[in-house]
């Protein structure tokens, strides 16, 4: 059997989760610090690389590959032409000899591998139940898999080591016209092709125990039905071809160029390419790496901030719904903090080298952080229409995390005569008044319909959401009630905010 699974169910108490969350704050601080260092270093690296490429493009001179001109000694030069090798590459362990610029040996072993998938479910009281499914599968892998780290080691053993190592052979006898390419330049070539072992094999030099099977040397009893521990070895190579190079001329060698600012410049690509095309490709590669590291740094910082805020969500998980709401808020806050601080750091790093762009990025980061602060501290907006009744009092034995419906006396205090309903057309405030009248008469269905109609006519009328939440609370529709009270609070409804804050429910 090539695949089997193992399922494990564990339970973690609220106190255990809280302890991990608190200790995770330290890890979060470390991740944020690492992200700050990475982002700052990346901007400096990107600017230095840009400056190196810019200076190099202004200094490079085109030369012919078939002759060596001493006037260009030590200068940055560009040339193209066919590359030849004076001696073949040899893998003595496997008895292969090939006229190539690079030769790679790829070793794979048939081994057990482990993958796991975890599903979590929160429990009332703050605990969490985890169901983890471990999947074990036999696969060809090009590195050793340590089965001792498996959750279930019985029946999933692998050999103690790889019998052969992956290896990269690089030519030290590659020539472009009259110049020799250093191994550093050859190593930067890409575009491997599979090797035909029959053409490269030295007669009578195949390794002992090896069986030819397709494009591989196979070590095992039956290539068609592999067993754990079987090994297969294949080869791939970069053959001599036309190459374009930008590098430094040192007598009869082409080597990486050391720029004035300390940067290194050596551009190599298969095919006949102009110097401009090589520099443009290098700039695109630099931009791709820069943005990749920026996104990685921002992601690292976001994870760090979430770990710092995670004790709040874990503490609120005593009530699973409340914990999910707080967790969502913590995730949004972590993302906003990471985005704002990342932009700020990038701007600070750029200010020194590129003041105009740096100042623009700094302004963007400050604006994002200022928006986050404003949304957290903005004052409540006055509500249109009637003022809502006083917030309900919390009963001693209350267990529902939302305010109870208003007392009968509060509804009765609202004089219906004060709100004469016009025949046509009815406004949102008119439907709000109509709903209050139905609420006083305990006509919950009619009240709910009236408040919903008011919301349809004016989606910014916080009092309508507030009273609809009160009606839904009386109808025991707790999830919908909380949602409406939260919308009212976000619209600036003071009473809704006070009621949710009294119960420690985020809005």
Write the layout of secondary structure elements.
Layout: E1 3-12, H1 14-59, E2 61-62, E3 76-85, E4 89-91, E5 96-98, E6 102-122, E7 128-141, E8 167-170, E9 174-176, E10 179-181, H2 183-186, E11 193-194, H3 197-200, E12 211-213, E13 216-219, E14 231-238, E15 242-250, E16 253-255, E17 257-258, E18 264-265, E19 267-270, H4 275-316, H5 320-353, H6 355-377, H7 408-412, H8 428-440, H9 444-457, H10 462-474, H11 478-490, H12 494-502
Parallel strand pairs: 2-3, 10-16
Antiparallel strand pairs: 1-7, 3-9, 3-15, 4-5, 6-7, 6-8, 6-14, 9-10, 11-14, 12-13, 13-14, 15-16, 15-19, 17-18
Helix pairs in contact: 1-4, 1-5, 4-5, 5-6, 8-9, 8-10, 9-10, 10-11, 11-12
Describe the overall structure.
This protein has helices at residues 14-59, 183-186, 197-200, 275-316, 320-353, 355-377, 408-412, 428-440, 444-457, 462-474, 478-490, 494-502, and strands spanning 3-12, 61-62, 76-85, 89-91, 96-98, 102-122, 128-141, 167-170, 174-176, 179-181, 193-194, 211-213, 216-219, 231-238, 242-250, 253-255, 257-258, 264-265, 267-270. The protein is of the alpha+beta class and 507 residues long. The chain folds into three domains: 26-47 and 285-377, no CATH class; 61-281, no CATH class; 408-502, Serine Threonine Protein Phosphatase 5, Tetratricopeptide repeat, CATH 1.25.40. The strands form four sheets. Strands 1, 6, 7, 8, 11, 12, 13 and 14 form an eight-stranded antiparallel β-sheet that branches. A five-stranded mixed β-barrel has the order 3-9-10-16-15. The protein has a two-stranded antiparallel sheet with strand order 4-5. Strand 15 and strand 16 form a beta hairpin. The chain is flat and about 100 Å long.
């Amino acid at each position: 059997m090539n695949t089997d699974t193992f399922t494990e169910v564990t339970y973690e108490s609220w106190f255990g989760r809280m302890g991990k969350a608190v200790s995770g704050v330290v890890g979060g601080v470390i991740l944020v610090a690492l992200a700050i260092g990475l982002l700052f270093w990346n901007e400096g690296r990107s600017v230095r690389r840009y400056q190196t490429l810019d200076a190099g493009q202004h200094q490079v001179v085109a030369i012919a590959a078939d002759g060596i001109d001493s006037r260009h000694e030590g200068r940055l030069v560009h040339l193209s032409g066919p590359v030849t090798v004076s001696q073949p590459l040899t893998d003595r362990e496997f008895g292969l000899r090939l006229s190539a610029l690079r030769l790679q040996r790829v070793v794979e072993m048939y081994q057990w591998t482990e993958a796991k998938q975890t599903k979590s479910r929160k429990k009332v009281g703050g605990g969490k139940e985890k169901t983890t499914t471990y999947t074990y599968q036999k696969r060809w892998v090009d590195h050793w898999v340590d089965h001792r780290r498996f959750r279930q080691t019985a029946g999933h053993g692998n050999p103690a080591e790889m019998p052969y190592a992956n290896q990269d052979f690089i030519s030290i006898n590659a020539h472009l016209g009259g110049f020799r390419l250093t191994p550093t330049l050859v190593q930067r070539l890409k575009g491997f092709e599979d090797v035909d072992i029959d053409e490269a094999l030295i007669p009578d030099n195949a390794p002992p125990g090896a069986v030819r099977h397709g494009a591989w040397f196979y070590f095992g009893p039956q290539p068609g039905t592999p067993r754990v521990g079987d090994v297969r070895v294949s080869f791939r190579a970069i053959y001599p071809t036309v190459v374009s190079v930008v590098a430094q001329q040192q007598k009869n060698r082409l080597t990486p160029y050391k720029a004035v600012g300390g940067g290194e410049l050596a551009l190599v690509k298969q095919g006949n390419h102009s110097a401009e095309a090589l520099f443009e490709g290098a700039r695109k590669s630099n931009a791709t790496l820069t943005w990749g590291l920026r996104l990685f740094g921002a992601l690292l910082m976001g994870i760090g901030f979430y770990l710092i805020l995670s004790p709040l969500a874990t503490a609120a998980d005593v009530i699973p719904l409340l914990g999910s709401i707080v967790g969502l808020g913590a995730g949004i806050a972590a993302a906003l903090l990471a985005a704002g601080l990342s932009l700020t750091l990038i701007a600070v790093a750029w200010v020194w080298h590129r003041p105009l762009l740096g100042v623009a990025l700094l302004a963007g980061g400050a604006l994002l952080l200022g928006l986050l602060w404003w949304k957290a501290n903005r004052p409540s907006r006055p509500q249109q229409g009637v003022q809502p009744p006083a917030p309900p009092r919390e009963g001693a034995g209350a267990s529902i995390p939302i305010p109870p419906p208003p007392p009968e006396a509060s509804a009765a205090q609202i004089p219906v005569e004060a709100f004469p309903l016009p025949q046509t057309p009815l406004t949102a405030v008119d439907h709000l008044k109509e709903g209050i009248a139905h609420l006083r008469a305990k006509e919950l269905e009619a009240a709910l319909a009236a408040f919903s109609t008011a919301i349809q006519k004016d989606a910014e009328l916080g009092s309508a959401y507030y009273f609809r939440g009160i009606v839904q609370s009386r109808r025991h529709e707790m999830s919908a009630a909380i949602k409406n009270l939260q919308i009212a609070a976000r619209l600036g409804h003071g009473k809704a905010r006070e009621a949710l804050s009294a119960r420690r429910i985020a809005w």
